[in-house]
Specification:
Helix Hairpins; rod-shaped; disulfide bond; TLV/ENV_coat_polyprotein; mainly alpha
Length: 98
């Protein structure tokens, strides 16, 4: 009798442990997705500010053929916008959890 009781207790504790672990993992996944969304929004805002600054510099340095002509073309880089791709990956991940 005691052996059966201990076995049942251990099985129930193991099941509870896995349920708690699954719940914790789901919370972590949702918080990660939320963080990714916030970081992406911040990166988009920073990219916009950088482009505005670049346009202003180009305007002021237009007499010298623009910013890249003054500081050198090797320092003028294009910053690609991956926010749509990140948003798509996040959406697909959330849909797969449901």
């Amino acid at each position: 009798f005691l052996k059966d009781f201990v076995n049942d207790y251990l099985v129930n504790r193991t099941i509870e442990y896995f349920i708690n672990m699954a719940n914790s993992l789901e919370i972590l996944a949702h918080r990660t997705a939320e963080s990714l969304e916030l970081i992406t929004a911040e990166m988009v805002a920073i990219r916009i500010v950088a482009m505005h600054n670049r346009f202003a510099l180009d305007y002021f340095l237009s007499a010298y053929r623009g910013t890249c002509a003054v500081i050198g073309a090797e320092y003028c880089t294009y910053s690609s916008d991956k926010s749509n791709l990140i948003q798509k990956i996040r959406t697909e991940a959330i849909q797969s959890w449901v």
